């Protein structure tokens, strides 16, 4: 079924909470048509290009229905009153990590997007929400959202509909794939299956390393960030 794009958001990189850090997580809604390039939405920025942005993480999509679940868990947090709490570019009702699959190709407006990976939450969510383990909660809940790469540049705007063009990996939802990435166990058979998928390079390296070393990497630097 066609799904409506409820909100489109962009943000500028500004100094963030910890010394030397920068972030564009505080994104704001945009009206009218926005250009979509291979690096994302016109006017959108990222605070740390080592781990955010780029062609494989050009646009971030977060399901709005998750907000009600977070409100139940966190209380009526002010960030949950409007889209953009999680630094997302696209906000919708109707699709979640369980219903979107790796490699899904979607048309919205005149742009064609492809689901490239789920989000691996980082410490900036802790500071944004004022909840010391928010990034871990996002990871454990599976409510991470996902990223797109841009296959065809174009324009989009809030109110436009998504159209699913192709689903090459229907057995590999974002939720299923992320559950492998966030598993502290090393299931060699499942990892081998994942390595046959068209994973982004950093996920490919991470899983290949787990297979080789028979252990899972330390998540603390990503989830807790630099200590102040």
UniProtKB/TrEMBL annotation:
Annotated MOSC domain residues: 28-165
Gene3D superfamilies reported in the protein's UniProt record: PK beta-barrel domain-like
UniProt-listed PROSITE patterns: MOSC
Pfam families linked to this entry: MOSC, YiiM_3-alpha
GO molecular function: catalytic activity; molybdenum ion binding; pyridoxal phosphate binding
Segment forming the signal sequence: none
Cited PANTHER family: PROTEIN YIIM
Protein's UniProt name: MOSC domain-containing protein
Annotated organism of origin: Pseudomonas alkylphenolica
């Amino acid at each position: 079924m066609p799904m409506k794009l409820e909100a489109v958001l962009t943000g500028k990189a500004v100094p963030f909470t910890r010394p030397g850090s920068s972030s564009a997580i505080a994104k704001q809604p945009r009206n009218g048509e926005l250009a979509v390039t291979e690096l994302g939405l016109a006017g959108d920025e990222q605070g740390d290009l080592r781990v955010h942005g780029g062609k494989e993480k050009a646009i971030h999509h977060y399901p709005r229905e998750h907000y009600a679940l977070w409100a139940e868990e966190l209380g009526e947090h002010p960030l949950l009153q409007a889209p953009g709490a999680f630094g997302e570019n696209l906000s919708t009702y109707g699709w979640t990590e369980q219903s979107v699959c790796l490699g899904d190709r979607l048309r919205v407006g005149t742009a064609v997007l492809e689901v490239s990976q789920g989000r691996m939450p980082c410490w900036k969510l802790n500071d944004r929400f004022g909840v010391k383990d928010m990034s871990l909660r996002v990871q454990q809940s599976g409510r991470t959202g996902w990223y797109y790469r841009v296959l065809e540049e174009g324009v989009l705007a809030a109110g436009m509909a998504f159209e699913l063009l192709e689903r090459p990996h229907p057995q590999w939802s974002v939720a299923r794939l992320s559950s492998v990435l966030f598993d502290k166990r090393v299931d060699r058979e499942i990892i081998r299956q994942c390595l046959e998928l068209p994973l982004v390079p950093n996920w490919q390296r991470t899983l290949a390393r787990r297979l080789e070393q028979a252990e899972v990497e330390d998540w603390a630097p990503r989830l807790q960030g630099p200590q102040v």
